[in-house]
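#help-structures
NK: newbie question, is this the right format to request a structure? protein is Phasin protein
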Amino acid sequence: MATTPTLAQAAALDRAYVAAGGASMPLLECYARMVDPATVELAACPHALVIEIADVAREAGEAVSFSLVASQSDASRAAMLRAMHETHESIQAVRSLSRRLSSIFRRGAELRSSMRGSL
């Protein structure tokens, strides 16, 4: 019988993988792929879009900042792990923004299509 790790176990496995030198969090990525963005309704609210954009800017800034620290010749392993973590969070923020923009685009297309049909 196959078993599935709990979310806490999956997170621990991903952290261990990164600590061992892995460049990603494979279980988190698998979980993200399982959630079909087409079935998740993302609000097209302009305020939510602005919040997503601000999150991308903040996460990207943190990724750059910690990566610069990790680029120093005397950088610790902890500094490198932090840079990797911040970079991963930046990537996730960009993906989230991309999903929201796609949702807004699709809604706009659906609206335009329904308006054409009612004229």
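mod (FA): yep, format's fine, and the tokens are attached above. The two ends are 58 Å apart (CA to CA).
NK: thank you!
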